[in-house]
């Protein structure tokens, strides 16, 4: 059995078009990860917690995320998270001194609109985590590093190393 958990918290990665409202809503069915997984030869455990846009995250949500990560049986966890506050959640978990390897990833464009970025970011996170040491990392746009060394450059619309 694979010892890595993919944990979704929502975010743009999981947004789908709602024809009734015209909004992009978080897909509670997690169709994006399920679609990616059905094409892979590896089997990853998958779960969901919180399931909202990261702009709506509070420290209560981060505490819920911490408790889940702390109490789960996995030592390697890829967290799909919204990009707007991914850094805040990563910092929050780092302050809890969790002795696990956690890699945050997400997408600037919903998988449902264009699957390439979301798939690439998740694949990179999963590839990195296999041999990574315990710590909190961010994997976005071809960059993976300790969480406080990767920033979202809002001017150019992508993540980069500091």
What is the topological layout?
Blueprint: E1 4-10, E2 15-17, E3 24-26, H1 31-37, E4 45-52, H2 59-71, E5 76-80, H3 86-94, E6 101-105, H4 115-129, E7 135-140, E8 143-146, E9 150-153, E10 158-161
Parallel strand pairs: 1-4, 1-5, 5-6, 6-7
Antiparallel strand pairs: 2-3, 7-8, 9-10
Order of helices and strands: EEEHEHEHEHEEEE
- The overall number of domains is 1
- How would you write the strand order of the largest sheet? 4-1-5-6-7-8
Q: Specify the CATH class.
A: Alpha Beta
Q: Helix count, per DSSP?
A: 4
% residues in beta strands = 25-35%
Question: Under CATH, the topology is which?
Answer: Rossmann fold
User: Unreliable segments (pLDDT under 50, ≥5 consecutive)?
Assistant: none
User: Termini distance?
Assistant: 36 Å
Radius of gyration: 14 Å
Keywords:
globular, single chain, Rossmann fold, 4 helices, 10 strands, two-stranded antiparallel sheet, alpha/beta, 162 residues, 30% strand
């Amino acid at each position: 059995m694979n010892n890595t958990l993919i944990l979704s918290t929502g975010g743009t990665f999981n947004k789908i078009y709602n024809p009734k409202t015209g909004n992009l809503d978080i897909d509670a069915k997690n169709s994006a990860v399920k679609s990616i997984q059905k094409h892979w030869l590896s089997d990853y455990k998958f779960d969901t917690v919180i399931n909202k846009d990261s702009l709506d995250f509070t420290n209560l949500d981060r505490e819920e995320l911490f408790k889940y990560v702390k109490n789960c049986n996995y030592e390697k966890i890829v967290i799909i998270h919204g990009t707007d506050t991914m850094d805040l959640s990563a910092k929050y978990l780092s302050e809890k001194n969790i002795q696990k390897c956690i890699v945050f990833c997400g997408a600037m464009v919903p998988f449902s609109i264009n699957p390439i970025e979301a798939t690439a970011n998740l694949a990179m996170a999963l590839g990195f985590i296999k041999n990574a040491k315990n710590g909190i990392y961010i994997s976005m746009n071809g960059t993976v590093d300790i969480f406080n060394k990767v920033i979202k450059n809002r001017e150019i619309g992508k993540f980069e190393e500091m």
